[in-house]
Design a protein that fits this description.
62% helix; 433 residues; two-stranded antiparallel sheet
Length: 433
Amino acid sequence: MKLNLKFNFIYIFFITLFFFLWDANLNNILIVGENYNKFTFNYLIVILFFPIFYTFINKKNFSIYNLFNGQKYIILFSLFVVLHFFLTNFINDQPIGNYEIINLLYLLLLSLIFSQYREFISDNFEKILILYLIIFIFFSFYESNNIFNAGQCNNKFFLISFIADNLKLNLSNSIYAENSHLAMMMVGVIFSSLYILINDNKNKIFFLFLLLIAILITLLNYSTTFFVAYFFCQIIFILFFYKKFISNFFLYTILFLILNSIIFFKDSNCFSKISDIKPKDIVEKKIDKKDTNLTTLIYQRSAVLTIDTLINHPFGWGNEGMDNATINLLKKPEYRQYIIGDRLIKGKYYDIYRLNLKDGLSNFFKIINEFGIFSLLILYFFIRYLLKLKKINSYNIFIIAIFITMCVRGAGYYNGGFIFCIFEFIYLSNLKK
């Protein structure tokens, strides 16, 4: 599809909403009422389907292959997800809800939109970043009266005291409901923005200013996710791209990792989310709330659930079937309460019942539980993508960082552009247009 350049900003706007505003809705920005709680701005990307449909009709060439811009692997992947969903629900004897059908339709729309807009996104990614940073910073100031740095990582390092006492500002986590959600997006933004600033000789003073303010806001609303995700991204970039990046990129990113590490290890509350993980309990399928923070508890439950799925349901539970998998695990006596005579008996792990059924805090666990042994294909495509990248740009860096980050601490396939990462890994970029 040939995009009309007059509408470039409109395309950029909706793509920015999809990648970054998945945690924002009219209620938490304008405070307009409870009816808007379920609709977040990222869903507005479906509007980009209409230019595709209009062009498709006008060409009068009714071919699915052309509709998907010749992206046969994306077509096959989408069909696999749909077929796998129905087969696994049949095998596991699970009812199919309307919400799940809508989810599949949304997946098909996104696969179509990505196939047509991928090159546009890559070519205009710097503009997408700038628009996001402006929105992010504006709403951080706009909501500055809200409590900031409210997560478990609440280390009052010198910047927080200076900003609060001298500038009288409480810079909030902006459009995000949790500090970890903010971290999910900013890890990729920092890596890709640094790449732009280092590799582009043009004057980028305004871009640099926006990035520095955004980094400050992120540090003021710190989370374990920010350190862990940044660390893993740094390792992957060094392992696979140490010869492809100029040395300054690694110099600046490693210096920032050192600062990140100092803030992280200095805060015992922050570090406890990692130190509380007990591998032995996971192997023995123990999920005990005693002396364990909530985040770690859900991680351990997700790990136990993943082991259970691979043993008993190797083909997975189907797209968006994480909740079914979790409920199936929690039916076991040790995870539920039941009545014997006139007594209410609680299983010894009942306290973790129904905590975060949908994604289990990590897309890594979510993919394995929903697609079972087929999840190895995603790993294969990711490794192949890393090895085959010849020309790297800020968009590639962002995609890699988002994929790694959301495997560490995810929020589903359709938030933060995670599904676009998978499409990117199987995208055929050498097609003749």
